[in-house]
Amino acid sequence: MRNLLFILFLVTSSLFAQAQNTGPLLGTVKGVIRDTINNYNLKSATISLFKEGNQLSSYQLSNTYGEFVFENLPLNTKMYIEVSHVGYITRIKEFVITDAKTPLNLQTMVLSPGVNTLNEVEVRIPPISMNGDTLEFNAAAFKLDTNAVVEDLLRKIPNVTLWGNGMITVNGREVKSFLVGGKEFFGGDAKIATQNIPKNALEKVQVYAQKNPYNPLDSTLTVNLKLKKNKDVGYFGKIGGGYGSTNRYESDGIINFFTKKMQLSIVGAGNNINKLADDIGTLRSNSTFKGVGTNIEYQPDFRQAGLNKSNFGGYSFNYNFIEQPGADVSMLKSNYFVQDRLFENLNETETVTTLNEMNQLFSSSSARVKSNTTIQSFDNQYDFAKNRNTLSISNKMHVKNGKTNSDVKGEAKNELDELTSTNDIESITKNQTKDLSLGAKYSFTGGLHSFPSFSVTYDFRIGEEQSERNNTSNFRSFTNSQENSDIDRRYADQGRDISHEIALALPGLQSLLFGASNVTRGWSASINTSLNLSESKDSRFVEDLALSGNYLKNSYLSNATLLKSREVKPGLSLAKLYSRRLSNRFEKSLNVQFLLNHAFLLQNNESEKFFQNIRRDYSQFVPAATATLTDHVFGKYYRTLSLNFATRLKVPSLQQLVPLTDSTNFYYLLRGNINLKKGVEREIEFKYTNIDENGVNTFNYKFGIRAGFTTNKIVDSIFIDNQNRRNIYYANADGSKYFEANTILNKAIKLQTSALQVVMQSSLQLSKNPGYLNGVFVFANSLTTSNSLILNFAYKDKFATEASMNIGTFKTEQKAFDMVYRGTNYASSLSSSYNLAKRISLGSNITFNANKSSTQEQLNYTIWNANATCRFLKGNNLELKLSALDLLHQNTNVLNYAGPNSFTVGTQSTLQQYFMTTLSYYPRKFGKKTSGK
Amino acid sequence: MNLNLKCLCYILVSSAFLSLAALAQQPQKIRVIPSAAYGGAVSEYFDNIEYIPLETSKESLFGDVDNLIITGNSFVITDNDTKSVLFFKQNGKFIKKVKSPNGTFPQIIFDGFNDRIQITYTDWESGLIKQRKTYTSSGEERYDVKNSKDEGISGDIILEPGYTIKFNDSHINTLSNLQDTIIYLIHVYKGKSLYNKFLPVNPSKSPGFCYFAGNLSKNPNLYYVQDNSVLISMPIDKSVYKIDKGKAVKVFDIGFPKGIEFPKDMLKINDTRILDSLKKVPLSPNLIFNLTNIFFDKNKLVFKGQSPMYVSNMNTGNPNYIFNFIYDQISNHVVALEKLNPDASSYYLPAFNPRDNLMVNGIRFYKESYYSHISSLDLFFARDATEDKNPKYPPVLRNYFSSQNRKSNPVIVRMKLKS
Predict the structure, then answer these.
(1) For position A360, what pLDDT does the model report?
(2) How many other CB atoms are there within 10 angstroms of residue A3's CB atom?
(3) Is the whole-model pTM more than 0.90?
(4) Partner B contacted by A115 (CB < 8 A)
(5) Residue A293 pLDDT exceeds 60
(6) Nearest Cα to B136, choosing from B69, B83, B60, B225?
(7) Does B333 touch chain A (CB under 8 A)?
């Protein structure tokens, strides 16, 4: 079925392609544009080609010789060209091509200097014009539906392509920056502007390139939407709600206000269909007037664990004190976001654990979890830049309140399928965390003859945590009844963390020491030093239910600790840039940097438990190095190759060193190891990127390899008994290694009226993890691969589809016990949207899933969602949407994963079939007085 | 005739002569509207267009022509990519490459009277002169010439043997404490002695000029000595003076439309607060601030507008930026080089490319020939774009296109202005 789907897709694509490339015979028209008064052929004149019904078909700018040529035009069809140039009267010329073999030559077309007036010639505003080095598309010249938005206009412009992944290209080149009125518009996501701003509020679309001074062929393409006068104030948004079968519902409300200096979004949303958002940006970009198309962001997630009932709300505010920010910046940003999430999940798993060559343990678990979490985040940032000074001040606040009820029933069996033990744990947890951070950064950019450059950063953080937990645990041993245990325990925890961090960077040290002299032979040096002081105060009060029926203090687990840490990281950076450039040819550079850092860490823990009163010092040289090679052959390719080396210090935590062992969970008893030493991880990374600069049908690719090893890695040392009780100690072990490789291939194929994009991604992770199992030193090798192929096809604004195929494999091997676990997951999907009529569109996405593993037969299931949308009212502001989700009723959320010496399969609760009707209203106004509709 | 009558007659006659003399010296007013300047096919204005590929080898490979000096028997080029000075024969054959000392970049000037190419090496960081060397036009080092850091022909215009022009500076960075003193922008030296001085400026009387300009274009390669005199423009004002060792005469007053010309009103403002506020107004690179490369050829005045900003390739290529003009004294027509289209006479290849050099350094002139240069990248691009015109390339270009590629050295273009 999966393969059938792909064949179907490819046949469809090729049919589209063929439809464009075959058909009736085609002809060519050409000509020359000339200013006879000033006696020269006009380069950069705009020639717009119109077919029947005044439909703009194509456009060109005249070349250096004033010439233009349009090819592949239909024969015996009435057409006309409109020739325009700033400072000249626009001219129109009609023609019919009758001969396919000989190009129709319109000869020299003379333009007269002057300004267009209605008396001279009846002309419209030219659709395209060249203003200096800016290409401008005049919105008024494109006839569209009165409710059209900027995206509809862009799709009408020949050589402008809107890709399925949100990318926009003009003449094959990717637009890197998308602005409205010269400024970022609601976070910079082009979709917010293109899918909301009405075409009628737009004066023109400006396309220009920010050139690279050293490479005439290299530049950053920018699109700026210039709004009509008085249209730069307004609001837009969405208010909608839906209700469906099995009591499913959704509601979304978002309103965005904007003026020349201010942008404000206010949102509120709620649903019980696993539509989750972590920020306002996600809600904003998925509530556009145009609709979401084939986008799968902020959609009911059928792969999500459990069932979520969520409510969101918040605002995002942005104020530019400078109306047209350039080098000078003065900007305030403020965001608030709250999400309340009710989560329910039933998780049933079966795990096989290998103990040694001979013995395996079979455990099963059934966990029912219900939680209610409210998270609030509030942040503000002020950025200021003037002359050589840059200042950034920010604060963040994060408050989380949660309540979780969980009921976990576990049992263990031996190889003879005999029950050895059971452990049931019920717990109720209430917790609250509060985090507040303040940060400030000041930078000064000095010069050779002025005060030297420097930057200072200060961060302050205070965090508080409070929680209450009640655990009841019943352990039953079927091999030794004396080990049976019932515990009813209450916890009350309090914690408070405070940290101060100050960092100083002093670049250009060589200039400071030696002035302009070249004593350092091109090497530059900088000092980067940081100091972190932190204090963490935790207390825990634990009570157990006694036989008397009263709760009595558990003196062992009740505790108070104070951890004081001081980390100093002095560092010296040495760098040298080797570069070679030949104008109009190539640019190559090699940048080498060595970071000589040393980490000094002091941790002093004071505790009510004498064995937790520990003081540890760590000192480690943590060098790093990077080498980046760039090779840019102008007009051909831009390649970068980088090699990085990093050292990281891994310090054992208090819980790894001297934990207080809580016996509530008999299947996981944390023991710790006071003799743990620091671990040191060393990593090397290689990355290669190729960007094709040939312009059309580009082929870009990336390739990366990362490998590392850790000496004295802190690893698990687990003792598992035949009742699946695990005592977790820790140990230092050498031999931990990992290797990762990934590649992305991206090929764009631009057809005449459609576009096809092919993306291939592959990744591989290999790791060798040492550990101890029941006292035996073992290595667990794991191999994970992931491969995906995505085809994205769009035909004008009628049809868009995305097909993808993913194959993921994993393998865990423990050679010591001759044990191998394998699994494979397949997923193929086809997502399409089709505009059936002016106000009616259809959408469908179907995913075929297959999971196979060592311990389980292949499991197949298909998720098919479909919807139909219809717009009402004059301004298309009202939308009725009928959705059918999981039409085949096959969704099963399968669990399938491997640990170092275990393999787990199972299922968990998930969203399943429902039908829903949604009604949405899109309030919108662009301009002070008139509606933007 | 009594004494009074004699005096009266003398005054009348003297006044008449003086008026006639003043009338004769009235500068000619030229008004240039770049957008209305004439264009046309390159063959309408130039003939004998030749392409001279500069030899490409491992040793001679260089980036771009940052400065070009044409001597009787060679092309001398500075290249900032390879930090070197390169000597090529007139047929493009490579002669020699002189590398700059570490951390310096080269500047060159040519003393045609004594066949001296002087190279000045300036430190990248400090801007200080580190060394000077002298070569012949064919690339032989001249050990007979004394090269001290402080003395030399650098910065001078050699008017005639023994007479040189040196530039003075009246630029001020701040408008406080304006000095009431006369600074002559041009000093004429006879040997080492001051012979004459011209173009006086008083900072206290002309604060606008001194604050926004204060000096003349100092690169001697932007001036052409013809008949022992040179045409020099005053910045902002754009009055052109003909200067020889004995006098400075204002000969042209060249004006541009508002919006294209750097505002001349600055020169009349004495209020330092207004001047200070005007300094903060952002400038456009297509404004014309000054004129350079001014010379006469066949009754035509050739000149180039200078931007008030540092101009790099980043700013060029804009079709609205028109800087290079030829004014025909007979027809009063102004032609813009930027508006000339390639045609069969140039094998449909560009004869000059605004992006490469035209806007930055202007076209070069030497013994009735005009010189430009095109990068191989642009030339190969133009060849590919004009294949359908079936150009008939001369052997030099046929050989160039068959043996070279877009990474080869730039190509010099030589042409003559039509009468």
Answers:
(1) 81
(2) 9
(3) no
(4) no
(5) no
(6) B69
(7) no
